[in-house]
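Dear colleague,

Thank you for sharing your sequence with our group. We've completed the structure prediction you requested, and as agreed, I am returning the results in plain text so they can be pasted directly into your records. Please verify that the sequence below matches your submission; if there's any discrepancy, let me know and we will rerun it promptly.
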Amino acid sequence: MGESRKEALRLGFDGSIRLEFHGATISSDGGLLPYRDLDDAFALTVMAGAALRDWRTGTNSPRRRQNAPRSSRRGPRSRSGVRKPLTGRVRGIMLRRMTDGVRRQESNLEISVYTLMHRVAGDAQEEPPVMCRTLSLVFTVIGLGLVIAASAATDGARIGRPLASQPASQPNVADTNPAWNRAEIVFIGELTEAKAGPVAMSMPPIFLNRLSFKVEKVLRGTLADKTTSCAHSYGNDTNFPYETGRKYIVALTTAQQTTAVRNLRLADDAAIKEVELACALPPGWTIACGETLSPWAGMGKSAWSAELPADAEKPKLTCEKTGRPALLAGPTVAWAVEPVPPAKSIQWTNPDGDGEYKLTLTNPTDQAVTVPALLTQDGKTLWRECVVILCQEQAYACPGGKGVAGKVSSLVLKPKESVSTVVNALALKGPQWPGGDRIEFTFCLGDKAKTMSFYYMARHHDALRDAAQKSVVAQKSLPADGNAKE
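Please find the predicted structure tokens below.
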């Protein structure tokens, strides 16, 4: 009523142009089920996982590389090192983003294949959608093969494993796996019991186990008893295939007031030889392509122009870059590290202090002991020139240390005598400092090593770290002559 009688507004289109969409049905796996079926048939990621090696240890446990492309997104890591599961809302958002990305990639690839075929065959030929999907899948498989080849070459170069173009005899086995060289405690023992514990419901799950060993030989560090019990976290689809009654090589850490496994492997002859060679080097030293390097290699020849102490045995290894000998502390002395209480304790901010650690070397015996790894000069102990700090798989000379020159001597500890110093780990330049998470420092003196876990809170520790690095206050002797005797 009252409306003008007009024809409805219509839009005109060119009928010769037709738009079609041949998209995939998006499933909960983001439309990747056909690709997974192809992978299961040809075992592509299984072959890739066999070619790659993963050196992550501890709470960041090694897992098979073929699981990486299939793992779901995980939440942030908690203080205990276990990933927190995502909430339903966050999981839904991430799934939608992943699905949209897969849809765009598939559509772009199919459009490219469709355009290419029309340029070759002419516009008169219409592209069947099945052929587009087939060719896009073929191109995806080819790309996956190229990525696997590049990753294998990169991983082989990183860990010092011989590549196809390198002679197999050139790299040395000691630098193949630095986890053994930088371990706090290494021993060979028989696995007597393996108890399965809780399982963290992450992707993949993390199995928390308790292992008991009968110790047969200690390659590094000290173990008070012939039997030891330790925790082992293992992230994988299935639990670690423990074999009770078999001999294992085990690397341990005591970073968070508990004894935990950092590395574990069966003790065959080749493995024992490799680990023994790695443990013969002081922690932080490496052998790369037949060249022995120390943490002071970056200082060049200025790092060592001193005479070897007369009371020190001739070292078996010497740094190729500096000429510095690999001096050991010896098995009789005890090495202890403890955090210095902060000037002001703040809840949830600095539970482990403000980065200062007290290092103590003790002679527990009833006889005098010579310690070649700790040098003295003119009555002063050269702590900064002898201590090495390991952090995030890198070895650092103690901040503030200088080259060793002139006549030096090995420290001699009287019976029951101790010497101490304080080192500020925040003076290190190089580590990736977290915003609010744990970071580990391993303090080394010759063949002695002790790992400490430190909670770093950026809003509090950043200013302290800047001040420490500017002033390079990395050592504070007790008393001023560097010898605090207890």
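Summary note from our side: The longest strand covers residues 185-200.

Kind regards,
the structure core
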